[in-house]
Amino acid sequence: MFPKLFTIPAFTLAGYHLGPFSLHMYGVLLVAALLAALWLAGRLAVRQGLDGQKVQDLGIAAIIAGLIGAKLLLVLVDFQQYRANPRALIDVLQSGGVFYGGLLGGIPVAWLYIVKHKLPLFRTLDVLAPAVAIGQAIGRLGCFAAGCCFGSPSTLPWAVVFHNEDAHALVGVPLGIPIHPSQIYESLGSFLLLALLLGMLKRKKFDGQVFAAYLIGYGIMRFVLEFFRGDVARGTVFGGSLSTSQFIAIVVVFLTLAALPVIARRKPDAV
Asked: Is residue 6 domain-resident?
C-alpha cells in the first residue's frame, strides 16, 4: 500500500500557516484511469467510423455523472451510518464510491448525449465498453494503493498485509492481517475483460455485442469477487445473503441476456 506519493510539510507564508499538503496515489491513478479511458475511446471511435471528439466529450459527461452516481449509491447503501454520523459524508468526497452506482449514473447521461448528438447508439456503446474496462483496471490499482475496497482475511501465499495508519483511519482497512488483494483481483480481471472486448470489437457480428459482453462479463466477475471482499459494510439485500453489488450484478446480467436477441436482430447502426 502506498497511499501518499509525497507530502509537503506545513509552512508559513506571509503570516499564514499552510499545509501540510499531500498528493495521494489514489488521486493520481484515478486521473490516469480517466485519461486512459478517454484516450482509448477516442482511438476506437475513429476506427469504428465515429467522431472521436464527440465520443470523448460523451466520455467526459458520463464520467462526471458516474462519479456522482457512485458516491450517491455509497451513501444510499450505508445510509444509517451516514445518518448517525453526518460528518462521515466528508469522507465520501475522498472515496471512489460504488462502481455500479457510477455505471447506473453514467449510462442515462451517455444515452441522452448520444440521442442529442445523433450518434449511433450501440456502435458508440461498443466503443465505450473497452474504455470503461481500462479505466476500471487502472482505477482499482488506485484502490489498492489507498487500501479501500479491501479483501477478507486470507491464508493464501499471495495475501497482502497493510500497515498504514492513515489508510486505516480513512477507509478502515485492517492492519497487520493477511487479506485477499481483492483490488488486484479486479484489476487483473478488468485487464482480461479489456483484451476480450478489444478482440471482439474487431470481429463483432452486430452492434451492441461488445457492450453486452462487457455488462455480462463484468457482472459475473463482480459477483464472484464480492465473496473475497472484506469491507462488508456496503449494504446487503435478502437478509444479508447478497451484497448490493451482487444483487445489481445479477439483475444486469439477466436483463442483458434477455435483451441480447433483440439487439442482435436490429439493423446495423448508421453512422
From this structure: no
